């Protein structure tokens, strides 16, 4: 309303006054004095009559004029116009506009309110009414007129800018009136409710906010509460719509809505409120609850009817649900009102329109999973779960179900949201179900049973990462005697009655679970189970679902429809091939199906498997699987022939093959697109990574879409094997699997980077762990690990920084779940073994090259930093689960190796901040991040744990893997690093911390041990074929071995040289050898022998690489000055003799090394010649094979010995060396036409020299040369025969590698012929030789020496040599030698045992001798017919040799004299029933001899 100017201003003021009073109080007109209605008004000129003469101003004239003006204005003022006046001229004129205009000076404002108060007081006095009533009437009237000014907006709840300005002025005046007790709140509220439909909701809100009148006072002053509820509901709904509408006043609308909700919650749900005054105690809380309930019911009705995006109803519902947040209730969260309101709201939701029956819920609940719920409803549930704890939620859910009729859709949707969004609730739900089952069976409570099954099925719909599958739960609950159903017959009847009642309504999947995993029932109640199974199968038949035609890998707990067999079969085939590829065996499910489910196996599985195609040249997994089934007779011959024929045809017409083997692109792309959309939604939600409910909801959608993208069922997550088989060398993935896994890994990495840009890992919530568990389901874990193997082990250098960060975090969360994940069985290059998930990642990361070291450093830095930041507030135990100790040790190793500044001791103060912080920098400075982590106090404290600390042994193992040619360090840098690590770091560390306690010998011991371990692993690991490099198989250990040589040299030069062996412990090297040999598996099987031989070859190479004095030791100070060689002699006698020798001699290298050591020891002795003599004399009794080895290699050994001895000692060789020289000269003269030189002693030395000379000469016949030995001692000839026997066995066991098979046979025949000639010479001279076949360890003298000259295997194979010489035996020996039969029987028994044990498999007797050899053998043998039979061997077969030996015994036994049978019974008793026929012949002959003696006449004279 504008200002009045001009001559009619006074009359208009009067009109306004009358109008105002009429509106305010009808009685006001009676008290107003004024002209009668018909009185004539005087003109303006008449009014001025008598005032023409100007009055002179006096002293008080100005004040009088001012007072008169005020009285005039008071009596002619329109109060409604005054309260709404907002405009006016400058303050020079006394007008009402500028007095209440807030744009004017403060003084004018104070003057305005005081002036209005004074005017209202005077006017109320004139009217005869209380000033509070008058002011309240005026204010209410002004608000109504102001709101009516916007009447063109019929349903508007917000004011415009002009209205807000006017209302602000009115509120200021009202506050003044309130402060001066000139305003009645009650009368003001009553006046407003009279015209409530004209009021604006914002006007009421502003009156409440500015403390003019509270909402409580407004509500309690209204007579019609139901009308108020309707008015508030209508306006709140309009307000919700306007909040979501794009306008400039959205913030005001949101603030209004939050305030109203907060007020209503406090009003309706706060106990012991002090605000109740004039109304009934329960009316106001009821009004507040009614308003809130009507808003909730409106939202639920809208959801049930279906909402369209961007519709007003959708906006209103979304806005109303947004009020259930901490932002709304933050100021009153300390009270209990929000919690009671949320509980009440949850009850309203769960009980809203309970029209669905249990049967409806059973049929429809699969459509109520979390991923299929309306997003608005899930958001409401999530908001309600914020204030209520999981225990309260589960308890409240249980209470509502027990006391109310419920809406099953909302109840089960709530269960899904509960287990998805609150991990703590998963176990609570499980326990609740267990209690429900117990109660159900205890009192046959059907309601509890229904609730338990519905809740379990609903929770199982969300996947195994959230809740066990229904099949697992059902089997765990009812598949054992511990189940509640087994307590009585009544319980069993109740269970099967319940399951039978479910049959008409439930899906086929659940009935299949009940049939395939039936409850455990005692035999006497078996009929209950069979009746149910019959009913269920009948129902399945009605549904056209067959148990027999179920897929092999169908998910019984999936809620999806049962697929047709022809649709499931290709998936089963792919799964079976994958399992076959991982395990190398036909999957158990396939084997079972081929027996118990033949209809599906023959009609669906095999046709899907045997789809014709072009067969690859190199058989793939599918072809290998088919061949394995064929070998196991699991594929009918006709079907296999048809398949092969079709494949042959396919090679000619490839374009017409295998239409079923290809998947239409559109069929595959569509699920992938849906998965990509879901992943994109998760990425968008990462702006607040801590909002677990939102992220969990989106991850549930991703989990829902993973199955279709992979082409598997929802919960196909249980692998048939408890371990994941993985080939590190050649990991392979199907194309579809790789696409899905790449999408998931990319999404995880992107989400981690996005989340880290908003918050550090410890404030990101558990989204990453939940995402990781999603990737572990759907049988996806093997594919994920295979892809990670490809990326980290094969493509590591190409990974970007964000990839490394993401994959490291993923590895941490996989480790966090290690307890529920299967182990990984990895193949080469690592040794085949089972690894946990953290150990698996450790095995993928190597430090061999510069590139792999950089990747390993990045990954370790990211993983450790992420773990320390993510779990900073949790216990250390979780770090032990997430991180492999090997990963932390590799990080320490690389930091020491690559950053020299890290080798300096750390200062006490923690100079590093959060370990994760540098990783978020755009530059990704990995060196800075690694050093930051290294200096962090938390990490250093972690390293104090024994399992994480890098020890000397760990460092050696890692350093041995380094390949110098591709190392990041140069040769000089690498040597400097080795020197620092060994001598400055680990040598001085205490042994408890993984160091050496300052002991250099300990450092050498550990180095040798680690080196040998590394060589053993590298042989099988890298399949090295270069024996010269196998001291460390992998290149890279050469430098470490150089460090060993340097340390060994330091020890030799030290004050306490270990080579003196004065210590009782012996030399460190031999201690390592002894300990390792004791740990090896004993036995003579092939595997144990090869393992031991490999170990001993490495020992020999280590010995050859160290100073030769190690073998001999320094001479002792006391006399006699002989070095201590006992440890080397023990190693030779116990091990090297068996595995590193051939036919009675060691290899050339170790022999030369020993004699070099002997010369070095002599050089340190005061009497070199005596030292050499004492040492070689000791060899004759303690280690004779050293001397025979010297004789074998004497032509190559003698020049070096002569040269070094003359140079060092200027004299002839010591006597014992001269003895060896004489033995060699004697042997050489044996083959020369000259007279043989006399044989030096001992005899076995000369015999060995003679044997080696004969062997090296390659003589086929030595019969003429043997005549020169006619004058030699018998002992020499027997020893020569022994060495020839060893040569015969050696020709069979260790033939030369480069010889052809015919050449090998020729060598064996030569050895046999030489051996036979020597045997004939012994028989000719009547020298007993049988003692050689009865040698034992208890023998003294020559027997013991001979046993130490041959490998144990040769001694065991003497029976083979014995019977190989049958053709050369003399018949007279049977009579002349009483022990011959005993030896022959003993050799036959041992030969049979060797054959049974399989030790003759590597030996073949000579075959197909020439006719000349046969004739010679026949002429030399005196056995008549028997010799002719023995002259024809049976093709070199061990069985043939046994047959000949048996025939020989059976024919010889009758010819043996009486004395030959002494002790025979004892021999037969020890052998058992080895050959009944031979035993019978022996016993019969012995008995016959005894009977003959009884009838012989005594020789009396």
Structure characterization notes:
The chain has 1501 residues and is mainly alpha-helical. Helix content is 62%, strand content 1%. It is built from 71 helices and 3 strands. Strands 1-2-3 form a 3-stranded mixed beta sheet. Strand 2 and strand 3 form a beta hairpin. Helix 13 (250-269) crosses helix 14 (283-305) and helix 53 packs parallel to helix 56. The termini are far apart. The N terminus and C terminus are likely disordered.
Secondary structure elements and their pairing?
Elements: H1 9-24, H2 44-47, H3 61-75, H4 79-84, H5 96-100, H6 106-127, H7 131-148, H8 161-179, H9 185-194, H10 201-209, H11 215-220, H12 225-244, H13 250-269, H14 283-305, H15 312-322, H16 326-329, H17 337-350, H18 358-364, H19 375-387, H20 390-403, H21 408-421, H22 423-443, H23 446-460, H24 470-478, H25 489-502, H26 508-516, H27 526-542, H28 565-583, H29 588-596, H30 598-609, H31 621-631, H32 637-652, H33 665-684, H34 692-710, E1 723-726, H35 735-758, H36 767-775, H37 781-794, H38 801-816, E2 823-826, E3 833-835, H39 837-844, H40 850-870, H41 876-882, H42 885-898, H43 926-935, H44 937-942, H45 952-959, H46 971-986, H47 1000-1022, H48 1038-1053, H49 1068-1079, H50 1086-1105, H51 1109-1112, H52 1126-1139, H53 1148-1163, H54 1168-1182, H55 1185-1192, H56 1194-1209, H57 1215-1231, H58 1243-1257, H59 1263-1266, H60 1274-1293, H61 1301-1324, H62 1342-1347, H63 1352-1356, H64 1358-1364, H65 1372-1376, H66 1380-1397, H67 1411-1420, H68 1425-1430, H69 1438-1452, H70 1464-1471, H71 1476-1495
Helix pairs in contact: 6-8, 7-8, 7-9, 12-13, 12-14, 12-15, 13-14, 13-17, 14-15, 15-19, 19-21, 20-22, 21-22, 21-23, 22-23, 25-27, 26-27, 28-30, 29-30, 33-34, 33-35, 34-36, 35-38, 36-38, 38-40, 38-41, 40-42, 40-43, 45-47, 47-48, 47-49, 47-50, 53-54, 53-56, 55-58, 57-58, 58-60, 60-61, 64-66, 66-69
């Amino acid at each position: 309303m504008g200002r009045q100017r001009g001559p009619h201003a006074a009359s208009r003021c009067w009109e306004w006054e009358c109008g105002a009073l009429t509106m305010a109080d009808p009685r006001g007109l009676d008290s107003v004095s004024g002209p009668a209605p018909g009185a004539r008004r005087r003109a303006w000129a008449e009014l001025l009559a008598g005032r023409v003469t100007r009055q002179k101003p006096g002293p008080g004239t100005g004040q009088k004029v001012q007072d008169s003006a005020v009285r005039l204005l008071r009596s002619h003022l329109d109060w409604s116009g005054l309260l709404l006046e907002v405009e006016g001229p400058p303050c020079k004129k006394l007008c009402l506009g500028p007095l209440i205009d807030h744009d004017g000076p403060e003084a004018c404002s104070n003057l305005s309110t005081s002036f209005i108060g004074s005017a209202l007081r005077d006017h109320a006095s004139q009217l005869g009414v209380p000033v509070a009533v008058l002011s309240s009437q005026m204010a209410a009237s002004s608000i109504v007129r102001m709101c009516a000014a916007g009447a063109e907006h019929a349903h508007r709840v917000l004011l415009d800018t002009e209205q807000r300005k006017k209302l602000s002025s009115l509120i200021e005046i009202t506050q003044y009136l309130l402060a001066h007790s000139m305003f009645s709140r009650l009368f003001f509220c009553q006046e407003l409710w009279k015209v409530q439909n004209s009021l604006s909701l914002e006007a009421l809100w502003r009156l409440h906010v500015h403390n003019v009148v509270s909402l409580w006072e407004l509500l309690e002053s209204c007579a019609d509460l139901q009308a108020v509820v309707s008015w508030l509901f209508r306006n709140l709904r309009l307000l919700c719509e306007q909040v979501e509408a794009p306008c400039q006043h959205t913030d005001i609308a949101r603030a209004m809505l939050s305030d109203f909700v907060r007020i209503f919650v406090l009003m309706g749900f706060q106990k012991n409120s002090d605000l109740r005054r004039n109304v009934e105690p329960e009316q106001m809380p009821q009004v507040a609850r009614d308003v809130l309930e009507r808003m909730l019911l409106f939202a639920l009705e809208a959801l049930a009817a279906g909402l369209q995006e961007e519709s007003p109803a959708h906006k209103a519902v979304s806005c109303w649900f947004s009020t259930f947040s901490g932002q709304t209730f933050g100021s009153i969260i300390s009270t209990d009102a929000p919690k009671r309101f949320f509980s009440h709201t949850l009850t309203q939701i769960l009980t809203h329109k309970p029209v669905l029956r249990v049967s409806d819920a059973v049929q429809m609940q699969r459509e109520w999973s979390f991923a299929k719920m309306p997003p608005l409803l899930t958001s409401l549930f999530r908001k309600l779960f914020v204030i209520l704890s999981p225990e309260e939620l589960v308890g409240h859910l249980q209470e509502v179900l027990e006391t109310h009729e419920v809406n099953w859709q909302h109840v089960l949707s709530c269960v899904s949201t509960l287990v998805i969004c609150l991990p703590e609730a998963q176990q609570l739900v499980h326990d609740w179900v267990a209690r429900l089952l117990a109660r159900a069976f205890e009192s046959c409570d059907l309601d509890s049973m229904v609730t338990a099954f519905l809740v379990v099925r609903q929770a199982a719909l969300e996947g195994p990462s959230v809740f066990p599958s229904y099949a697992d739960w059902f089997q765990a609950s009812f598949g054992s005697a511990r189940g509640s159903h087994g307590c009585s017959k009544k319980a069993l009847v109740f269970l099967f009655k319940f399951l039978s009642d479910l049959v008409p309504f439930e899906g086929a999947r659940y009935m299949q679970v009940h049939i395939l995993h039936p409850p455990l029932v005692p035999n006497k109640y078996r009929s209950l189970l069979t009746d149910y199974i019959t009913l269920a199968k009948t129902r399945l038949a009605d549904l056209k679902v067959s148990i027999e035609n179920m897929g092999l890998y169908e998910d019984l707990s999936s809620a999806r429809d049962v697929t047709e067999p022809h649709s499931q079969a290709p998936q089963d085939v792919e799964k079976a091939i994958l399992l076959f590829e991982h395990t190398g065996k036909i999957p158990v499910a396939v084997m079972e199906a081929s027996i118990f489910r033949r209809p599906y196996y023959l009609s669906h599985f095999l046709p899907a498997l045997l789809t014709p195609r072009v067969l690859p040249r190199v058989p793939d997994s599918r072809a290998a699987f088919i061949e394995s089934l064929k070998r196991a007779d699991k594929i009918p011959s006709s079907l296999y022939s048809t398949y092969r024929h079709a494949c042959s045809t396919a090679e000619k017409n490839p374009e017409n093959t295998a239409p079923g083997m290809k998947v239409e692109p559109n069929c595959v792309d569509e699920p992938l697109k849906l998965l990509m959309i879901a992943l994109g939604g998760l990425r968008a939600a990462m702006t607040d990574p801590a909002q677990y409910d939102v992220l969990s909801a989106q991850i549930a959608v991703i989990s829902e879409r993973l199955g279709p993208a992979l082409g598997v069922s929802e919960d196909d997550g249980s692998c048939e094997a408890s371990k994941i088989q993985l080939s590190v060398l050649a990991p392979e993935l199907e194309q579809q699997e790789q696409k899905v896994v790449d999408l998931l890994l990319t999404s995880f990495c992107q989400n981690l980077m996005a989340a880290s840009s908003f918050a550090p890992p410890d404030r990101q919530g558990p989204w990453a762990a939940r995402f990781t568990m999603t990737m572990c389901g759907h049988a996806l874990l093997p594919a994920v690990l295979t892809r990670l193997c490809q990326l980290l082990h094969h493509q590591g250098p190409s990974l970007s920084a964000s990839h490394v960060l993401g994959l490291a975090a993923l590895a941490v969360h996989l480790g966090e779940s290690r307890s529920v994940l299967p182990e990984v069985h990895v193949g080469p290059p690592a040794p085949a073994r089972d690894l946990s998930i953290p150990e698996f990642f450790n095995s993928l990361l190597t430090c061999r090259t510069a590139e792999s070291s950089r990747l390993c450093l990045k990954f370790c830095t990211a993983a450790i930093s992420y773990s320390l930041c993510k779990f900073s507030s949790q216990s250390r135990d979780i770090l032990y689960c997430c991180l492999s100790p090997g990963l932390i040790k590799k990080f320490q190793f690389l930091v020491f190796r690559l950053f020299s500044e890290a080798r300096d001791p750390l200062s006490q103060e923690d100079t590093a901040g959060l370990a994760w912080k540098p990783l978020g920098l755009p530059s990704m400075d990995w060196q800075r991040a690694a050093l930051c982590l290294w200096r962090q106090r938390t990490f250093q404290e972690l390293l104090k744990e024994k399992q994480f600390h890098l020890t000397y042994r760990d460092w050696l193992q890692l350093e041995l893997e380094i390949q110098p040619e591709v190392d990041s360090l140069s040769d000089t840098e690498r040597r400097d690093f080795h020197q620092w690590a060994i001598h400055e770091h680990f040598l001085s560390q205490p042994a408890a911390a993984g160091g050496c306690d300052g002991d250099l010998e300990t450092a050498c011991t550990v180095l040798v041990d680690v080196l040998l371990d590394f060589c053993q692993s590298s042989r099988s690991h890298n399949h090295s074929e270069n024996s010269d490099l196998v001291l460390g198989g992998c290149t890279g250990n050469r430098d470490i071995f150089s460090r060993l040589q340097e340390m060994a040299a330091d020890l030799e030069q030290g004050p306490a040289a270990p080579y003196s062996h004065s210590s009782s412990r012996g030399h460190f090297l031999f201690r390592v050898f002894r300990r390792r040999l004791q740990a090896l598996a004993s036995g003579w099987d092939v595997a144990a022998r090869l393992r031991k031989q490999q170990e001993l070859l490495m020992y020999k190479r280590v010995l050859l690489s160290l100073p030769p004095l190690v073998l001999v030791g320094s001479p002792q100070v006391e006399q006699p000055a002989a070095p201590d060689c006992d440890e080397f002699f023990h190693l030779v006698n116990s091990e090297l003799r068996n595995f590193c020798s051939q036919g009675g001699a060691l290899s050339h290298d170790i022999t030369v090394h020993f004699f070099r050591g002997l010369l070095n020891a002599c050089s340190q002795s005061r009497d070199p010649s005596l030292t050499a003599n004492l040492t070689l004399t000791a060899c004759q009794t303690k280690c004779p094979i050293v001397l025979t080895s010297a004789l074998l290699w004497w032509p190559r050994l003698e020049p070096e010995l002569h040269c070094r001895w003359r140079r060092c000692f200027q004299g002839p060789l010591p006597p014992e060396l001269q003895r060896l020289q004489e033995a060699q000269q004697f042997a050489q003269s044996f083959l020369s036409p000259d007279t043989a030189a006399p044989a030096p002693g001992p005899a076995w030395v000369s015999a060995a020299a003679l044997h080696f000379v004969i062997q090296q000469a390659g003589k086929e016949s030595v019969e003429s040369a043997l005549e020169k030995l006619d004058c030699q001692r018998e002992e020499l000839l027997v020893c020569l025969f022994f060495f020839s026997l060893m040569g015969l066995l050696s020709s069979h066991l260790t033939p030369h590698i480069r010889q052809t098979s015919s050449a090998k046979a020729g060598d064996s025949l030569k050895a046999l012929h030489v051996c036979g000639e020597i045997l004939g010479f012994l028989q000719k001279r009547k020298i007993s030789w049988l003692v050689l076949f009865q040698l034992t360890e208890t023998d003294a003298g020559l027997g013991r020496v001979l046993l130490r000259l041959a490998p144990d295997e040769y001694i065991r194979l003497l029976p083979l040599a014995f019977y190989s010489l049958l053709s050369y035996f003399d018949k007279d020996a049977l009579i002349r030698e009483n022990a011959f039969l005993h030896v022959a029987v003993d050799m036959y028994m041992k030969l049979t045992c060797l054959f049974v044990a399989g030790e003759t498999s590597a030996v073949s007797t000579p075959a197909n001798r020439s006719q000349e050899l046969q004739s010679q053998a026949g002429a030399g043998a005196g056995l008549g017919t028997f010799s002719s039979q023995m002259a024809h061997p049976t093709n070199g077969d061990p069985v043939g040799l046994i047959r000949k030996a048996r025939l020989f015994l059976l024919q010889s036994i009758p010819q043996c004299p009486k004395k030959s049978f002494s002790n025979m019974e004892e021999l037969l008793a020890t052998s058992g029933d080895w050959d009944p026929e031979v035993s019978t012949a022996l016993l019969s002959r012995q008995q016959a001899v005894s009977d003959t003696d009884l009838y012989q006449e005594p020789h009396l004279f």
